[in-house]
Design a protein that fits this description.
mainly alpha; 6 helices; globular
Length: 103
């Protein structure tokens, strides 16, 4: 069962303020777990921050590789297992940057 609060947080971050959200409905019925959905959203934030910092479009493969190689994925797993920040994308993202180092 998907955590609706997590999905609300993700959609709110992307500017969705409507009661009905197409993205949320897709996520509710997807085979992805909450953990996977949160990590995809975090890599998305990471990708856009990297792109802005580097002044170019960093693609998904490159950003995902940097996410893993930089230790963000491993630290994310640790936070998730400890049930820390698991319902708030920005709090999790900030904690990861603090723990693993800024971009």
């Amino acid at each position: 069962m998907k955590d609706r609060e997590l999905l609300d947080d993700i959609c709110r971050e992307d500017g969705c303020i409507n009661a009905h959200c197409f993205l949320k409905e897709l996520l509710l019925h997807s085979p992805l777990s909450d953990r996977q959905i949160m990590q995809i959203k975090l890599v998305d934030k990471f990708k856009y921050a990297l792109s802005e910092k580097q002044g170019r479009n960093v693609n998904w493969n490159e950003s995902f590789n940097m996410w893993v190689d930089g230790g963000y994925s491993k630290q994310y797993a640790n936070f998730w297992e400890q049930n820390e920040y698991t319902q708030h994308v920005q709090l999790m993202y900030d904690a990861l940057l603090q723990k693993c180092g800024d971009l």
